[in-house]
Description:
The chain has five helices and four strands, in the order ααββααββα. The chain is of the alpha+beta class. Strands 2-1-4-3 form a four-stranded antiparallel β-sheet. The termini are far apart.
Amino acid sequence: MKEQNLEDTVREVIRKMAASATMNLDLAKHLMEAVEEQAKKVGVKAVIAVSDAAGRPIAVHCMDGAYIGSFDVALNKTYTAVAFQMPTAELARLAAPGGSLYGIQNTNEGKIVIFGGGEPLYVGETLVGAIGVSGGSAKQDTDLGIYGVERFRELVNKNGTITG
């Protein structure tokens, strides 16, 4: 009985700490720099965007030579990942012809992107923002977005607070 009470108490503390976590510019910059280095390694000239939990941009980073159109795509990938609390690659599967969300990309004033590269960012179970990557193939963007999630987890302290 005591073990269960302790476990419940620890979970509640972690939940409260995670609920107070917010995305910040310092973290966004560190995250974008890490993804840029990986993009260079795989030969992608990317635009990397980070938003907060409301889908508002925190920062957008454009690598030299990145496609002009990738700016809006990366930003909208963050919006999509936050709005639907899932990776854009997963939404793409649901939005395919015959899928349960077919046509969703035609909603939200055209801000919904249904190809990979957008990833929600969580601290514990709390959504704190998203990363969006555009500039390569859908697979390259997806891989870079997932890489960003992995780096994000490394930048978040074990106690649930965000540091840059």
